[in-house]
Amino acid sequence: MDDWNDHRIVLAVARAGGLKGAAGMLGVDHSTVFRRLTALEGRIGLPLFERGAGGAYVPTEAGARAAAAAERMEDEALGLARDLAGLDRRLSGRLRVTCSETLAFRLLTPWISRFRARHPGIVIELAVDSRVLDLSRREADVALRVARPQENDLWGRKLANVAWAAYGATGYLAAVPPLTGPADLASHPLIGWEEGTAGVNAARWLAEVAPSAAVVYRTDSLVNQMVAARSGVGLALLPCYLGDPEPGLVRASPDPIADLSRELWIVTHRDLRNTARVRAFFDAVAHGVQADRALIDGLAARAGTPA
């Protein structure tokens, strides 16, 4: 196995557990992965995977060793790429950023516009994704996260506390008594997440304070939850930076819900912290957060919010 592409094939199949997933990782078609893997096994005279039911591919002992070696090679290559990128002092090139749907929708895009006006040589690629992308593997260069990073190889800073509140359509909330506490949510139609949603703080909290029968509409998109609440479907839990500026939508009670407050962080890999375009983007986002801090902290609710 003296061709790096052979190692990539083995590693992708081992990670995906099948040909289809591996093809997606590598950006090739299913038949290409099958043909190259079959040819590789023929050359080395050993099966690397056992073919199981439903198209599953399980590494043999040889396959597991080959995949582990490929992963070490990948780690070295990625480390070298990060080292070289960390020495880059140019305010030009590609910068891949990842954040959630709501941050991109309401906050980050205007910040990027101002950043691009100042640094036209930097091309931004924005990956809008609720998953935590792997910065060590360069799935992104910079991430905006609503939780303190746990990985030891990341470097970043806390930007703000993100406030959340319950929101509903102006007409609906004008016709009902204001909420006096979380327990009152159960007496209203609610908008929630798909059942079984994991890792969403607000989804867990809502499941604890209101019965499932109170939820009349479910979607994992917070932007869609906002639109549904504005349309009168029910009340939705939203970050204040998303709900407060939206016409036709008001808070169900004036104060943010303390239990739902999250931390907003900007992070990168430690190897990239001195890259010029990364540092410039950090500064631009910090400036944007400062300008929008009242909105993010939940202190900028519009007049007309129910008392």
From TrEMBL:
InterPro entries: LysR-type_TF_proteobact-type, LysR_HTH_N, LysR_subst-bd, WH-like_DNA-bd_sf, WH_DNA-bd_sf. Pfam families: HTH_1 (PF00126), LysR_substrate (PF03466). SUPFAM superfamilies: Periplasmic binding protein-like II, Winged helix' DNA-binding domain. One of its GO terms (biological process) is DNA-templated transcription. Keywords: DNA-binding, Transcription, Transcription regulation. One of its GO terms (molecular function) is DNA-binding transcription factor activity. Residues 1-60 form the HTH lysR-type domain. The keyword Transit peptide does not apply. The keyword 4Fe-4S does not apply. It comes from the Bacteria. This is LysR family transcriptional regulator.
